[in-house]
Specification:
The protein is an all-alpha fold. The protein has helices spanning 4-9, 11-41, 57-60, 67-95, 100-122, 129-153.
C-alpha cells in the first residue's frame, strides 16, 4: 500500500489534486451564484427564506421559480453529474501510472471544458458550445476510465 508521502511525491497525483481542487472550487462557486440569483431575483423555494422580505402575502410572492435561477441550478446539477465521476475515475487514473504529460492533458482538458460549460450556461453562449464543452469533458472521463480498466483488467 502506498504511503501518503509517496502519493504527494507522485507528480501525476499532484496534478490530479490540483485540477480536482480547481473543478471543486468552480462547483462551489455555482452555489454562490445560485444564492446571488435567488436574492437578486427574489425567487425562493422555502417559506423561511422569504422572511427578510416581509410576512404574509408579500413574502409568499417570493416563493416562485425564476428562469435565471433555474438556469444556474441546471448548470450546478450538470457539474455534480460530471465532476463527481471525474473525482473517482480521475483518482484511479492517476494511480494507474499514466505518463505525466498525458495525465496533465486529460486533467487540463476536463477542467477547461467544465469552465467553458459554465460560461456557456450562464452567459448563455449559443449552442453547440454548451453541448460540445459537456461532450469534451465527458469524453475525457470515459477515456480515463478505459485506461483504468485496461490497466487493471488487461482489456
Amino acid at each position: 500500500m502506498a504511503k501518503l508521502t509517496q502519493l504527494i511525491d507522485n507528480e501525476v497525483f499532484r496534478a490530479y489534486a490540483t485540477y480536482t481542487v480547481i473543478v471543486l472550487l468552480k462547483m462551489m462557486l455555482m452555489s454562490l451564484i445560485t444564492a446571488y440569483f435567488r436574492i437578486t431575483r427574489k425567487a425562493f423555494v422555502n417559506p423561511e427564506d422569504t422572511a427578510v422580505f416581509g410576512k404574509g402575502d408579500s413574502a409568499k410572492k417570493n416563493l416562485r421559480t425564476d428562469l435565471d435561477v433555474e438556469r444556474v441550478r441546471r448548470g450546478h446539477l450538470n457539474d455534480l453529474e460530471n465532476i463527481v465521476p471525474f473525482l473517482g475515475i480521475g483518482l484511479l487514473y492517476a494511480l494507474s501510472g499514466p505518463e505525466l504529460s498525458t495525465a496533465l492533458l486529460h486533467f487540463r482538458i476536463f477542467a477547461g471544458a467544465r469552465i467553458v460549460h459554465t460560461f456557456a450556461y450562464l452567459i448563455p453562449l449559443p449552442q453547440p458550445s454548451r453541448g460540445l464543452s459537456w461532450a469534451v469533458g465527458y469524453t475525457v472521463t470515459i477515456l480515463m476510465a478505459y485506461k483504468v480498466l485496461k490497466t487493471a483488467l488487461y482489456l
